[in-house]
Amino acid sequence: MKMLNKRIVFSALIFVLMGMSQVVLAEQRTLTGDEVTAMFSDKTVWGEHAIKDKQTVGYFAADGSFTGRNLANKNTKSTGKWSVDKKGRLCLKKGGEKKKCTTVVDDGGEIFV
User: Which of 19, 47, 58, 68 could form a disulfide with 10 if both were Cys (CB 3.0 to 4.6 A apart)?
Assistant: First the structure.
């Protein structure tokens, strides 16, 4: 596993809410599908909810599987599948839940999902 060297800040808690809208300022840039794949594939990602005081860590395997832990909720584990759709959005499907997709934005210092 490779550790992602950029800090990931989750504007919507990726493991739970992935559908929350993202405010994009002029200096921010939406990543392409190839960039999203390169950023997450075979990487361990740490994230924090931008509004709530919650932290998560997840591993996005190259085969499309996902394993994550909610560090704020007794280290609860979640598993599922991740992918990048035709629009370049990061998608996550956990267990019997519906697949949720969201754009990935780089503001030059932090990544917002």
Answer: 47
List phi, psi (to 5°) of 82.
Answer: -125, 155
Pairing state between β 111-112 and 105-106: antiparallel
In one-letter notation, the amino acid at residue 53 is: D
Q: Going residue by residue through the chain (113 aa), what tens digit of pLDDT does each one get?
A: 444 444 444 433 343 334 444 444 457 889 999 999 999 999 999 888 777 778 889 999 999 999 998 888 777 888 999 999 999 999 999 988 999 999 999 887 767 77
- Return the H-helix or E-strand segment holding 35: helix 33-40
pTM beyond 0.90: the answer is: no
Domains of the chain, by residue range, sit at: 2-112
Q: How many CB atoms lie within 10 A of CB 97?
A: 12
Read off the tokens for 69: 């832990």
Q: State residue 14 phi and psi, 5-degree precision.
A: -55, -35
CA distance 58 to 72: 13
